[in-house]
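task queued by scheduler; priority normal; single chain, no ligands, no partner chains; default sampling; output format set to C-alpha cells
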Amino acid sequence: MKYIEVRIDTTPQGIEPLSDRLTMIGADAFSVQDEADMLSFLDNNRKYWDYIDESLLNGMRGVSRIVLYVCDDEAGHELLDRLPAELEALRAARPDVALGTLAVTCSTADDDEWLNAWRKYYKPFCVGERIYVCPEWERPGEHGDRVLYVSDPGLAFGSGIHETTRLCMEMLEAVLPAGGTVLDMGCGSGILAVVALLLGAKSAFGVDVDDKAVSASRHNAELNGVADRCRFVCGDLTEETELVETPEGGFDVVCANIVADVLIYLAPYVCGYLKRGGSFLASGIIDTRLGEVCDAFENAGLEIAGIRRENGWCAVSCRQAL
C-alpha cells in the first residue's frame, strides 16, 4: 500500500498546538521530531548508552516538526487539500505562539519497500573461527564446520553486525567449555545465549529488564532450534536473585553486552553468579571508558584476562579467581 509522508516544520513551542489541530481534524497518525525533546531524552537515559552517532545529532539540530502519515488515496488527498487552510487557521487562532514557518513537504513511498529496503545490505558473514551468521531470508552459503546462527535482524540488537556483539561472540567461542552453562545479563535478542548453545553449551539463561527483549530472545531461540535448552526471563538480577536457576557452583560463563555505566553497576554482582575459575565477558565499552570499567571489575574480585578492540569499541574477558 502507498502512503504519503507529510512533514510540517514548526518550533518547539508550536509542537503542542499543531498536534492538537491535526488531531482535531482527524489527522492523528503522526510522530514528533524535536531536537529539545531528543536531547532531554538522551540526558535522562544516559546510563543506557555511552555513544550517540554524531550524524543522528546533526540530523536533528534545530529540528522541530511533525511528520504526518496519510494513505495515498482519495481520503488522504482530501485531507492534504484541507491542510493549508487549517494551518492558516491555527496561526490566526494562536498569535501568542511562535509557530515557525509551518512549511509542508510531502513524499510518497510504498510501505513494503520502506520496511524491507534495508535487507539488501545485510548478508551472511563469519565471526571468529567457528560462527557463521545468516539472516533468515538468505540461503546460507558454504560455511564449512562453522556453526550456523540464523538471525532475525528485525529483533532488538539481533543481527550480530555491531562490533560489540562480534567481539563478545569471539571471546565466547574462545572460553566456553564443552557442555558449559551460560548466563547472559541484559540478553537483548538472546544472541549470545543462542550462539553459546550452538557452540556446545549445555544450557543458557538470559535476563533482561525489557519484556520485549525477552520475547525476542525466545523467538531467536526457536528460530535456531535451541529453545529446549535455554530460558529467558524479565527482571533485574541485582534485585531479584531468585530469577536465575544458578547451577551448583555457578555458571561457567557470564556475558554482558551493555554499556560502561551498567557494567560498572553490575560488577559487584557478577561473582555471585560465576563459577570459581569461570569467565565473565563484558562488551559494549567505548575505549574512553575502558580504564574505569576494568577498575570496577578488579575491585569486584575479577581478574582481567584479555581485552579485544575494534573501531573504538572494547570487550573485556575476566576470570573469577580460584
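post-processing summary
- The chain has two domains: 2-117, 162-320.
- The longest strand covers residues 274-286.
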